[in-house]
């Protein structure tokens, strides 16, 4: 079987669950579509252009069928859940449609499809957490760990509550078992995943409890998490991040807009002021914190004044990075009925203004690192140059440096010599044999 993954980290984690389920049923993974008997695509439905890309890629899968007429083509994930049977009508070569809560049925559905029977399974569940399934990891340094599924926030632009269903949390004990397993296998980093990790609640423990317990499993493991909703970001959580050296000083804290009027229409449940206060509290408690955000431009009725308030908020927060999107109407969401009245060229112009301002802020932030020595976990060869390695700081900044005997998975000290808005560049100072956070912050 061959599988391709689109969209968010939750989907990457789900792909590893799918790989595990299929592996247990006897399917062997290939990295090449050209040698697959089963070709799966794990999809994203969050924006129209994501879906268009997937439809394009499905065309390639169909083309491959010419050389392997028996190949089973399956669509998994959020787009499968959203478009359902209609996807088999528009793309009539698709054999399988399987939503995020139905992956246990995949082997049986694939076997049936091999006999020529098309299959569809898109029921959402209130209980499915895939708790008993050990993901088949696709990386050996960094592990994704889903701590919950679904979302109950119902931001009015977002299709996720419809494609991933109601929010449900795994038990802390179960998550910790998975963390212990990856720590024992020598992983260096875990990322706890959920659409809104701050509302994690297993009946006894909340997210700060889980985060602290995860950090205790192995001090040499870097702990990351995403995504945080500003509404549930408690002082307890901020305190937990501040007090643990191996919890990374990086928070992805999507704001979406800087205008209170738009935030209300989005059902984000906070004001720009509330958000800025939160950022202030975070920065006070964790001065070295790195923050990133998501911004949507061109939400229905967004005016120039609303847009300007978003630009002002970017300046006020000084994020290290931002993921920026043009509003894309999604059927069934509340915002769908608000129309899509901001013209495409206005959305584009506002988007580039957001990007330009943020690029400049990121550049300024990164330049303050020049001259400092930072701790980097070596991830592998740099994409751009064979002579270089790359890795990330605990604040999630990408660092590129000349190869110098260091190995993937080492923590090393890099002296930063220059920076652009996306990357820091430097040279190696020394190798740490323990996670350097220990050495530098506690001594
Ligand atoms: N249009 C544009 N961006 C969207 N996002 C979610 N739904 C939409 C939409 N309909 C963005 C939000 C969210 C991120 C994952 O995707 O910014 O935080
Ligand atoms: Fe979508 Fe809002 Fe839930 Fe995030 S918190 S997945 S944007 S509904």
CATH class of the largest domain: Alpha Beta
CATH topology of the largest domain: Rossmann fold
Beta content comes to 15-25%
Q: Strands of the biggest beta sheet: in what spatial order?
A: 1-2-3-4-5
Q: Roughly what percent helix?
A: 25-40%
Structure ligands: 5'-deoxyadenosine, iron/sulfur cluster
Explained architecture:
The relative contact order is 0.08. The model is unreliable at 436-443 (pLDDT under 50). The chain is globular. Helix content is 35%, strand content 22%. It folds into four domains: 2-121, Rossmann fold, CATH 3.40.50.12160; 139-248, Transcription Regulator spoIIAA; 252-367, Transcription Regulator spoIIAA; 373-432, Beta Barrel (OB fold (Dihydrolipoamide Acetyltransferase, E2P)), CATH 2.40.50. The chain has helices at 9-24, 48-65, 78-83, 86-90, 106-114, 160-163, 172-184, 207-217, 235-243, 260-265, 272-285, 304-317, 344-367, 436-442; strands spanning 2-5, 38-43, 72-77, 96-98, 119-121, 142-146, 148-149, 168-169, 189-193, 222-226, 250-252, 290-297, 321-326, 373-381, 388-392, 398-402, 411-419, 423-432. By secondary structure, it is of the alpha/beta class. It has a five-stranded parallel sheet with strand order 1-2-3-4-5, sandwiched between helices. Strands 14-15-16-18-17 form a five-stranded mixed barrel. A three-stranded parallel sheet has the order 6-9-10, with helices on both faces. Helix 8 (207-217) links the parallel strand 9 (189-193) and strand 10 (222-226). The chain binds 5'-deoxyadenosine and iron/sulfur cluster. Iron/sulfur cluster is lined by residues 151, 153-155, 158, 160-161, 195-196, 229.
């Amino acid at each position: 079987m061959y599988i391709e993954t689109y969209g968010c980290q939750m989907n990457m984690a789900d792909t590893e669950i799918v790989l595990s389920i299929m592996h247990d049923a006897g399917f062997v993974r290939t990295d090449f579509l050209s040698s697959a008997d089963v070709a799966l695509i794990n999809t994203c439905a969050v924006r129209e252009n994501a879906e268009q890309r997937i439809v394009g890629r499905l065309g390639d899968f169909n083309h491959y069928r010419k050389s392997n007429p028996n190949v089973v083509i399956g669509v998994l994930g959020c787009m499968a859940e959203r478009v359902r049977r209609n996807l088999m009508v528009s793309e009539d070569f698709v054999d399988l449609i399987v939503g995020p809560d139905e992956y246990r049925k995949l082997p049986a559905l694939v076997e049936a499809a091999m006999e020529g029977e098309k299959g569809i399974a898109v029921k959402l569940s209130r209980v499915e957490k895939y708790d008993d399934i050990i993901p088949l990891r696709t990386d050996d340094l960094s592990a994704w760990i889903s701590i919950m599924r679904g979302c109950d926030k119902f931001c009015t632009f977002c299709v996720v509550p419809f494609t991933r269903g109601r929010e449900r949390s795994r038990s802390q004990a179960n998550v910790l078992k998975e963390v212990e397993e990856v720590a024992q296998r020598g992983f260096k980093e875990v990322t706890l995943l959920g659409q809104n990790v701050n509302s994690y609640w297993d009946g006894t423990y909340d997210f700060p409890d889980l985060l602290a317990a995860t950090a205790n499993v192995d001090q040499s493991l870097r702990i990351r998490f995403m995504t945080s909703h500003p509404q549930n970001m408690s002082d307890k959580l901020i305190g937990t991040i501040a007090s643990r050296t191996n919890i990374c000083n990086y928070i992805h804290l999507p704001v979406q807009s800087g205008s209170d009027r738009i935030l209300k229409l989005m059902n984000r449940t906070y004001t720009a002021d509330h958000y800025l206060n939160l950022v202030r509290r975070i920065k006070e408690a964790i001065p070295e914190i790195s923050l990133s955000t998501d911004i949507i431009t061109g939400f229905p009725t967004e005016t120039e004044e609303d847009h300007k308030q978003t630009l002002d908020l970017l300046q006020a927060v000084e994020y290290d990075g931002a993921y920026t999107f043009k509003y894309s109407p999604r059927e069934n969401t509340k915002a769908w009925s608000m129309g899509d009245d901001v013209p495409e060229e206005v959305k584009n112009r506002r988007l580039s203004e957001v990007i330009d301002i943020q690029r400049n802020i990121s550049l300024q932030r990164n330049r303050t690192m020049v001259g400092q020595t930072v701790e980097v976990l070596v991830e592998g060869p740099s994409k751009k140059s064979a002579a270089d390695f790359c890795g990330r700081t605990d604040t999630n900044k990408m660092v590129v440096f000349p190869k110098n005997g260091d190995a993937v998975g080492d923590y090393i000290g890099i002296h930063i010599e220059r920076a652009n808005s996306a990357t820091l560049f430097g040279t190696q100072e020394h190798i740490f044999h323990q996670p350097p956070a220990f050495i530098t912050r506690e001594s």
